[in-house]
Amino acid sequence: MPSSNLYFKEYRDYYLKVIELGGVIVLFVDVERSVFIGRLFNGVEESIEKLVENDPQYVAVKKLIENLGCSVSSLLVIGNSIVSYMLNIRGEDYWLAFSQYICSRERFQSILDLLNTHINFLKNTRYNVFNINAKIKRLHRFYKSILAKKLYKNPTIYCEDLSLLNRELALILKGKEYMKTIVFATKMYYYLCRICGVEVNVKGGLPIPVDRRNAFLSLTSCMIRDCRDTLRKCIEDLLSVNSGLVIEAWNIVCRESKIPCLVLDTFTWLVTGIYRDVREPGRVYGVLKEKYGFKRSMKLYELINELFRCMY
Description:
Number of strands: 2
Radius of gyration: 20 Å
CATH class of the largest domain: Mainly Alpha
Strand order of the largest sheet: 1-2
């Protein structure tokens, strides 16, 4: 494959030529570029593992387990995951606030206690009020399900097969297995399995959650090409009619890197969070290294630069 600078120039030349000829450009996955990005992850596995354990959402799950145990926490973690969208605060802050609120309550005697406390959290904190009635219905559907009863009795029962949990959640919520909140709930349960000391099977082809941050990186890395509008509008397109492109691109990355997509999502989540703070791609590596105490790594530096190479 040509060097990334040459590759980027060749793509721009192509793009301008199509525009000149009046052609129609449609978003598509650049397979070669996705393979290239995937192989850049080889050699940074230790850094990603460190990020997982420092993820504020991982820390929040750990706090729940330390205070309430695995059984109660398994329900709270999945319940909170399936309503964690369109928040009033950042996701990492939301999860920390959730764990603090729950751990400050009295001990729970039943699944119904958990449901009522969870609903009170939504109503009283105002961190998650968008479409709150629909979210409360989701909580009812989950906490009153056979799945919830199974987890309450054996909280790590799905650690051997996360894809089975993914399928059962999809049935309960009447959605697709690749839907953002369903995949996200599976990822958060993966965190619970690790913290509860159970070996986890993260294989099985679970996709990366199609959220705003992963759609953003799909475009800024040029794994998905031909955005003819603003970056914001192309992200909206990927979150709706073209969500399959995000899944396809990151599946290639996960295959080439041999890192499960659920694990890779922690890396993309935290890296884009740093970019959101600094708004300068060139500063992301330095902030990441300082914030998480990484040693100097040219592989990590190159990877992050390539993820932001095609900023619009």
